[in-house]
């Protein structure tokens, strides 16, 4: 199966009933971008730009950012790259843009909040992104959004950056849905954005009040509470919906996410071929009712039991 997946990795992923699902790659370095292309990713659905900003004494210059973003775009050979603006929290120190002392960094000045707190830093990143968007297909995405006001403020700064860059016609603008407040109100963001991408790692953490990576808690993104939020986004967002958290690479979850309206799955580069194969096995006429049912089950274990391959795949 792995061999067949590798052979077909460069082709689009279409369900058995003819729905195309983009299978994208999550990228955290230029090397990842090369791996994404090698594994047949349709685009880079999440570029974690933190790698450029962490472990240094000063922020990268606009020119340095441009060079790296371009290199990533070139590695992807003309496929779209989705540049997420800086997403750091109080748990990852930035000497040149510190967070206040926080007792709970995951609920503190992180993601878009940090960028809005350092407008000079944010403006430089937006100018770099807008410049790169002049010569290749680029999307920009804001992390950890919780209110519409944040998106309006970020867009205003983006529009200014586009003014400084000259033009950036192909630039698409999106937000990550990682906070329950944003999932509950996804329609309120529609006037300001072109797409949303659900970050299931953080969305699971914040929905279940269970810290990411805390082995004692083992929160599962297939929890019906998380699924309900994704379903809400799928029906209310009014723009294309992607998923870029770990759940997107979970073969059991792929049919369900697709049935909930997700049309892009962004995963670690090596996972691209198998996720494409999983998409090809989906029959939405079966997956749709199962997704409905999953949203009403008791817990993630019950959902996993329901999603046994025979139930959702054409075989
Ligand atoms: C997520 O939260 O699901 C996500 C994709 O972002 P990150 O893992 O970088 O926080
Ligand atoms: Mg996140």
Automatic annotation (TrEMBL):
Domain of life of the organism in this record? Bacteria
> Where located?
Cytoplasm
Q: What quaternary structure, including any partners, is listed in this protein's UniProt entry? A: Homodimer. The dihydroxyacetone kinase complex is composed of a homodimer of DhaM, a homodimer of DhaK and the subunit DhaL.
| Function according to Swiss-Prot or TrEMBL | Component of the dihydroxyacetone kinase complex, which is responsible for the phosphoenolpyruvate (PEP)-dependent phosphorylation of dihydroxyacetone. DhaM serves as the phosphoryl donor. Is phosphorylated by phosphoenolpyruvate in an EI- and HPr-dependent reaction, and a phosphorelay system on histidine residues finally leads to phosphoryl transfer to DhaL and dihydroxyacetone.
Per the similarity annotation, which family is this? Belongs to the PEP-utilizing enzyme family.
Record protein name field: Phosphocarrier protein HPr
Q: Which organism is it from?
A: Paractinoplanes tereljensis
Q: Which residues of the full protein are shown?
A: 498 to 812 of 813
